[in-house]
Design goal:
Length: 263
């Protein structure tokens, strides 16, 4: 197992570049000083940059204001992704002063795919895991996501359909079914030109939780990653999933908080 410093260095060196390079269809990236902004995403715009922005005070305020004006002109919300080890340390306070709103803080976890102790975990009795690709299945998945989160997530089907059509080798969508009904779903997002793949979108209907489905989905995706030669799995974990994933061999390296501005 790599130490935390090595994992954090790999995360900063590889994933920060990948999140503005490996974009879905229709998205475009522009550089503005030290930051990169991505427009044309399915849900909202996105801003990221290196660990150290290399500026502070009024110069940083000016960069923040330019991003807000850019997305205001588009009538588009935007997320500025921050990490706890970013510099300068007052980025969150300056974003708040500019009208951005903090969403839930998550813990960045990294696991060595081939070393996870749950790698061979099977699906629970009565549950079938299946990789899905068809438009019909992806619309069913979006309906499942909408039911779980109690909000309209129909956009997810379009986003996944476009993603799988443009680069089918990059995204693996897995669902768990009971008697033919989808009860849980998750994705493996492979980051080209890195050693990483991300575990995203894991969600289960409340009545089907605490039965081992989540563990089986993590294990299934870890096996896929290992078979493809991927070294690391990364997760932005909520406080519900963080302790579970840490028991399964993942290491916490930092935290991440999205700051969102909505016109």
């Amino acid at each position: 197992m790599a130490d935390i410093a090595s994992l954090l260095a790999a995360y900063d060196d590889q994933l920060r570049a990948a999140e503005i390079r490996n974009l879905p269809p229709g998205a475009r990236v522009e550089r503005d000083g030290p930051v990169y902004r991505v427009a044309g995403l399915a849900q909202r715009g996105f801003i990221s940059g290196p660990r150290d922005l290399g500026l502070c005070g009024r110069a940083l305020d000016a960069v923040i204001a330019r991003q807000r004006r850019f997305f205001a002109a588009r009538g588009e919300a935007v997320e500025w992704k921050t990490r706890a080890h970013d510099l300068p340390g007052d980025i969150p306070q300056r974003l708040l002063s500019a009208g951005f709103v903090a969403e839930e803080r998550e813990t960045v976890l990294i696991g060595v795919a081939s070393d996870l102790p749950i790698l061979d975990a099977p699906a629970p009795d009565g549950i079938t895991l299946r990789e899905v690709h068809t438009d019909a299945d992806l619309h069913r998945l979006a309906e499942l996501s909408s039911e779980i989160w109690q909000e309209d997530r129909t956009w997810l089907a379009t986003a996944l359909i476009d993603q799988l059509r443009s680069d089918p080798a990059r995204t693996v969508v897995v669902v768990a079914e009971a008697a033919g009904r989808m009860v849980s779903a998750a994705r493996l997002e492979i980051e080209p030109e890195t050693e990483f793949a991300g575990l995203w979108g894991g969600a289960t209907l409340p009545a089907w939780r605490r039965r081992g489905i989540y563990r089986a989905l993590v294990a299934h995706r870890a096996r896929i990653a290992t078979a493809r030669g991927i070294r690391y799995l990364h997760v932005d974990a909520t406080e519900n999933s963080r302790p579970i994933l840490q028991r399964w061999g993942f290491t916490a390296i930092t935290t991440t908080t999205p700051y969102v501005w909505t016109p």
